[in-house]
Amino acid sequence: MRVVHKFNLNIGETVIDLPTSAKTLHVEQQYGQLQLWVETTPGEPTFERHYRVFGTGHPIDEVAGLEITYVGTALMEGGAFVAHVYQAVPDKQCAKRSKIHEKRE
User: Fold this and answer.
1) How many CA atoms lie within 13 A of 21 on its CB side?
2) What is the pLDDT of residues 27-47, one digit of tens each?
3) Where are the beta strands (DSSP E) in the chain?
4) Which domain holds residue 44?
5) In b/e form, how buried is each residue of 33-70, taking b as 16+ CB within 10 angstroms?
6) Strand, coil or helix: 59
7) Is 79 exposed, middle or buried (0-12, 13-18, 19+ CB in 10 A)?
8) How many Cα atoms are found within 13 Å in the side-chain-facing hemisphere of 72?
9) Of 51, 63, 60, 55, nearest to 81 (Cα)?
10) How crowded is residue 3: how many other Cβ atoms within 10 Å of its Cβ?
11) Phi first, then psi: what are they for 92, rounded to 5°?
């Protein structure tokens, strides 16, 4: 059974432990806080997902050993700050996730 969960995101980095098949659905401001909605299947193996938030015009730090992918953009503070959310997964976690999926097939 799938379920949708909501998580607060901090400016900078937020680490969330999620099932391997979790699917990011949406990012948006809600009640002044940046939120992330994720569809998950409870009971599956989990791994850490690192979400990083950058403002428009700020450098997107590439960190060795991380795979960084765009998740979404949200307007904060009435549009005064635009938050761009990326997921940064450590390479070793990517390999771990691949191995878990191989075992299922």
Assistant:
1) 14
2) 999 999 999 999 999 899 998
3) 3-8, 12-19, 23-30, 33-40, 46-55, 66-76, 81-90
4) 3-104
5) ebebbbebeeeeeebebbbbbbeeeeeeeeeeebeeee
6) coil
7) exposed
8) 16
9) 55
10) 9
11) -65, -30
Query: What does the chain come to in residues?
Result: 105
Query: Are 66 and 95 a contacting pair, CB within 8 Å?
Result: no
**Residue 64 DSSP class:** T
For the chain, report the end-to-end CA distance as a whole number of angstroms: 20
Summarize pLDDT for 13-22 with one digit per residue, the tens.
Answer: 999 999 989 9
* Token pair listed for 61: 């730090």
pLDDT in tens, 39-72: 999 899 998 899 999 999 988 877 667 788 899 9
Please state the domain count of the chain: 1
Residues 81, 83: Cα–Cα separation, whole Å: 6
In the DSSP assignment, the letter for residue 62 is: -
Nearest to 19 by CA among 59, 42, 50, 46: 46
- Measured between alpha carbons, how far is 93 from 47 in angstroms, rounded to an integer? 7
